[in-house]
């Protein structure tokens, strides 16, 4: 089939029976066909002639602004413990606004003369249009929820902001598939001349993901699912025969269409809210917002839904009218404008996002891939007009007369090459400089960790190259978990050559230690091995504190602390790999004179503000221990701002760091955890517990399996959750280099990484 729009032909009988009005419509259709053909011919030679001086529309500029603001607001609120409720708030706001507008419009009609009603669509056509709207909106609402989950789960916002352009790749594949299957009308071009853009986007989408050292697989899958569902919704909106508008154009009213299309997102978001959200807490939080705060949080998202029916972190909503496919293949100015708007929204999201709580580096390969997609898909022709548009913007700011845009000289080959190259260099260098230098240096000022930690340099371990492996066995955990921990870490190449001792502390009352059990746990390990039982109080952290206090006088050079409570078959290899990548064992014969690991957390980490610390799991520092423990571990630095939280109770610590903190501090924490007088113990006082709202039981962070899913008790005190997150603070390893540079457990190592990225070396 030739490129261009090909209208459907009528038979001769129909042509004889058409009236004068229908002949005029047919003539207009042929004129439109010629215009499309001419436009396509121009697009084929756009490198030499160009599309003209027309710039991005006001509509696309508004979309870029609203998309950037709504994505950043959504990121901030979703990462602040809103799971689905924020998306429902946006739907409620947008739906209510349009409903009120429609009501006012209907009231206005009471004072106006009703128009003459013309013949409208048939009942079948009306039902088909309504079904299309409902089906498309239902699919898009699922994509919206997937997008919200991606914003919630993806640690690396810059990489996530680079990916919405992939939506147009899904558009191309799915629309072509629908065309082949005759699901959509076959009156458009199927030329493959712009396929190179699809290939470019596909190839350039891999480097940002592959070099994402904070990659979260589930977050990535949610993002891709959201993009794919958005494309499927467009296919659903176009399936079946093409229906021409007639009569009163009831279905063409944007207000009525939005009210119909707004029902599925409301229903889906409502179901998700009731099933997954802490509605009580979310209502309490949103109810405390002032009007200005509500407008700031919800305004951009509501306007984005009303004007564009777009969700957060998505591509510009574009439906092809000339070509079967997406905006990447459409040979029109509006398609290029859609691609440019999508890329620009991603760029501004990266620029402003890193000024918040985003602490990630980006790689040159990621930035170059993003820039290459922009240059190839937007094209040198459009980029060539950027200098005169910039000059016009400057003259407009100074209230001077703007210059008319002409093709000459901006579309000459020399200017096109120069402008495109300069644009690519400026975008790439500025993005790298802004994220990796400006944002990093700005955040660096909030980390007040002293450069020289307070270490016990006078202590000498009784045995050279001594190394302890401490395993805390909790009630209900299997014996096989202990055996897997012993086998995995005692056979590790970095540990197997050390003078290793394994100590298992069990708090399981049903644990029966026999010779066969001991042998099954010990396995092939030939070193010193012992098992001790403790009272089931205080949890895992109390076990570690017990060992620290017990071995204070004969502590080895380095100690590995492990817990069976947070170990499974999936995470155990990740913990072992983290040790392989970042552990520096002591050297012989002078372990204290050569670099070695002082602290290394084998689990995940997260940063927070010292004064009011909370994390993405719903935990909060209700005991207000972080400021006091910070100053207790660093007497010379009593104040703190940004701190690093640790997860999992898997870490390595040196004796110099453990003993660098006063023994009284460890004793105070241990006594608070194991004190059985819950009525008088400070660790169980009601005012120290996290605030639970009326009706919040079983919701959100208090649901079964969540951070506060079980009540505070001697077996599992809430204080233990706080101490678990305090190991880095207590052991003076709360550094910005770790917050910014440490990869996720799934990735393990980042390009250009160092062993100091995830731990502290002394």
From TrEMBL:
<keyword id="KW-0812">Transmembrane</keyword>
<feature type="transmembrane region" description="Helical">
    <location>
        <begin position="257"/>
        <end position="276"/>
    </location>
</feature>
<feature type="transmembrane region" description="Helical">
    <location>
        <begin position="126"/>
        <end position="151"/>
    </location>
</feature>
<feature type="transmembrane region" description="Helical">
    <location>
        <begin position="217"/>
        <end position="237"/>
    </location>
</feature>
<keyword id="KW-0472">Membrane</keyword>
<protein>
    <submittedName>
        <fullName>Uncharacterized protein</fullName>
    </submittedName>
</protein>
<feature type="transmembrane region" description="Helical">
    <location>
        <begin position="157"/>
        <end position="174"/>
    </location>
</feature>
<feature type="transmembrane region" description="Helical">
    <location>
        <begin position="367"/>
        <end position="386"/>
    </location>
</feature>
<feature type="transmembrane region" description="Helical">
    <location>
        <begin position="412"/>
        <end position="435"/>
    </location>
</feature>
<feature type="transmembrane region" description="Helical">
    <location>
        <begin position="82"/>
        <end position="105"/>
    </location>
</feature>
<keyword id="KW-1133">Transmembrane helix</keyword>
